[in-house]
Amino acid sequence: MCHCEIDAMLPMTYDLYSTVDFPTRISNHSSTTIDNIFMDKFKNANFTIKPLPNGLSDHHAQILTLHDIKIQNLKAYHYTKTLINDSTISEFQLNLSYESWEEIFMEEMVDSIFNSFLNTCFRIFYHSFPLKNVYHSQLNKAWITTGIKISSQHKRDLYLLCRSTKNPKLKNYYKTYCRILSDVIKTAKKLYHNKLITKSNNKTKALWNIVKMTTKKSKAMIIVLH
Fold first, then answer.
1. Alpha-carbon distance 117 to 84, whole Å?
2. Which of 40, 75, 107, 156 is within CB 3.0–4.6 Å of 113 for a Cys-Cys bond?
């Protein structure tokens, strides 16, 4: 039996409505709607939403498609992020140590104490970790072939079958299939990267671009703020 904890047609505050009206977490004994996407249906009336089993957990992803919206295909875009590294963390800790917290101890109500504490932490946080506009190039995963897409969908189908049965042969087949698909993906990436290096006029630069793209290695930890 499906137990929906949030009515899909229930109006929320700020004209927001829940869009998910199907189970998002399914186990052998129950199914519940505990994940949701809220939007203004009056501004986005033409949309479709469907579940996507990810094969990793009992929680399904939700795919929301907005129709009749024109999106410009850009090769690069800007976004806002906060850069957190050893230097800014040290500054954050230092600013916290200088804070007297007098405003907090002057409050009597628990809610007021909490709000005052939270506001102080946010003030120090945003001062220590300022927002920055970052230019980001869009990465094209050209190594994802049609066969990989079909195999990935078949993997999700097998996952759904394994979840509803205790057949050990099916479960072993699923594990073997996942391992083979993982090897195929690694090989596809390797062939694609080798092709980029071979066709590049500056092979050293191409190699380092691939290393940065695949490892996303950075000395700093990046938090994206929306």
1. 22
2. 107
Residue 46 is assigned to a structural domain of this protein = yes
Q: Which domain holds residue 19?
A: 2-66
Residue 90, both tokens:
């040290």
Query: How far is the CA of 169 from the CAs of 165, 179, 188, in angstroms?
Result: 10, 15, 28
Ranges of the chain whose pLDDT falls below 50: 1-12, 138, 217-226
d(CA 143, CA 187): 9
Give, for 171, the enclosing helix (H) or strand (E). helix 168-199
Is residue 75 included in any domain, yes or no? no
Same domain, 157 and 178: yes
pLDDT tens readout for residues 157-171: 888 788 777 788 888
Choose one of 34, 66, 98: the last residue of a domain: 66
- Helix and strand counts by DSSP (H, E) for the chain: 6, 10
Count of domains observed in the chain: 3
